[in-house]
Amino acid sequence: MPLHRHPANQRRYDQRTFGERLADQVTASFGSWAFISVQTVIVIIWIGVNLLAFLHGWDPYPFILLNLVFSTQAAYAAPLLLLSQNRQAERDRIKAEHDFRVNQLSLQFLIAWHRDAHPVGCECVSKLGPAADDALAELDRELLAPTSDCVTNGQQVKPGATR
Description:
- The chain has 163 residues and is an all-alpha fold.
- The chain has one domain (7-156).
- It contains five helices and two strands.
- The protein is rod-shaped and about 95 Å long.
- 1% of the residues are buried.
């Protein structure tokens, strides 16, 4: 049983692989003030030690080794950041699809409540013209159409039903 009910949270927390968890942890640290501060201090110390040690500096000016370290860091950071962004985009798509289904269900309830609250001969919707009837008919078809996120254990589940 998943720990999270929202489909995007299930994908984000319950279904991640080890590599995805590791990439998310590393990219979370890259974007922190602690990382930026520590890296800045290390660079200042590196440059200071090498400038003061004219004779025995391991990386004399123009700091080729420091440049190599930064290039290596960037070579590893860029793919990790892209992986994390791709997963975030996937979570956003899942959330958008879920929100769309919730909005459709909400509209269906509003239509049902409108029909219950108004008499049979009410012309509120009919005053809007055939476009409103067409939109409601299309909505009914979409709400009744099965989707891949409505299948649980091989059985079809109606949108909005608790699982």
